[in-house]
Amino acid sequence: MSYDLIVKGGTVVSASDTFVADLGVVNGKVAAVGKLDAEAKTLVDARGKVVIPGGIDAHTHFDMPFMGATTIDDFTSGSTAAVFGGTTTVVDFAIQQRGKTFRHALDEWHRKADGKTAVDYGFHMIVVDFPEEQEAEMDKLVDEGVTSFKLFMAYPGIFMSDDATIYRALARTKDNGGTVCMHAENGSVIDVLVKKALAAGRISPEWHALTRPMTLEAEATHRAIALAEVAGVPIYFVHLSAGDAMDEVRAARERGLPVYAETCPQYLYLSHEDYKRPGFEGAKFVMSPPLRPEGNSARLWAGLKRNDLQVVSTDHCSFCMKAGKNKPGKELGRKSFAQIPNGAPGVEYRLLLLWDAVQRGVISENRFVEITATAPAKLFGLYPRKGHLNPGADADIVILDPNQRHTFTRQNHHSAADYNPYEGVTVKGAIRDVFVRGAAQVLGGRWTGRTTHGRFLKRAPRAA
Ligand code: DUC
Ligand code: ZN
Ligand code: ZN
User: Fold this and answer.
1) pLDDT digits (tens, 9 = 90+) for 264-274
2) 414 lines ligand 1 (CB under 6 A)
3) Hey, which CATH number is domain 3-52+388-447, 2.70.150.10, 3.10.290.10, 3.30.365.10, 2.30.40.10?
4) pTM of the full predicted structure?
5) CA–CA separation, 291 vs 302, rounded Å?
């Protein structure tokens, strides 16, 4: 047997096991795992290094128009940042325009990504408008591999769906095998709090968080679980930030309901205190849901260990602080926190931030692989093609050096954002080599790939 690539002698980590082995790759797929004394066109020495399945980030926003701005990372810069951070698959969000079809949005997002992406990618569909006549279109999308649909309980007048619409969307997934992904915050009440704060002259970034309390995330989470229970379908919560919301998920799961949730590194590593940084700096952290008070992240870490939370994605939604060419920045909100485009970069930092938690003994290396690759692959119809390194899987392989250190900074990241939320933070671990379907995109921490390599992934519907 001759291989295209052999990754030799690394410590292979899966969601369940850790063992020393060689990986043999043929035609972009893992062909063998074990002791391989065979020929290979390329041999990569991974002794003393950690070999993991490429990260799957189930929540990115590349090239997304939002709040009067457009995210600064398009599919090329966003996916390049992903690769450098060890993420080899993203699931990005296409956005339906009000009064237009899902098909229209999907075509637009294919145009944004096709031939411009360094990693493999799928799409969720953001549902803005869901008249009864449109329900059948949802089934068609599922057949085309767009098997998940994000609905919002926040942003009235922009994205928010009422409970009846949410219920109809959930109920439709019972037969078509789609999954509803929920942004759970009570947008109507938040709007009242925002107006009241602005009327009182509270304009600084910190008020973004003060007008979006945890209880309103927990309430929406509870309500959405109830709607999914009545519809008799699973539900997945995106960017869960609040311990109180997690308690709702946990209580539902303890009752045996198929309720799932992701959190994001920002809710694990940053806190409300970051809004108190001097001047307008707090705007860097304006995102929805907001960062939570200190003490909240310990609850999320405990939930990750207990499997109350199943996935860590990033909600990569990058805006510059300063306006650039045709791209307004967070400065839009200097006079009102409510005008600051919501979001922050994250896709490049996720794996190393979480690997640092492994080094510190907070989570096991196997749980790390599960929450960054295996679980999102299973929940979003990418398994068994992706999310593991057994024979037959795509050869999306990351070689991580556990002894090197990496410092996060704006100067060395690959996002086009003009700031790094983790500026100056040093972690133990560095991404050395990254292969996407067997192709070396990064070797020795340097770019060796093609930003045209990524392919659209037709995802499978839910198994049950
Ligand atoms: N929700 C997201 O998932 N992304 C950006 C903004 C938001 O509210
Ligand atoms: Zn959201
Ligand atoms: Zn998002």
Assistant:
1) 999 999 999 99
2) no
3) 2.30.40.10
4) 0.98
5) 17
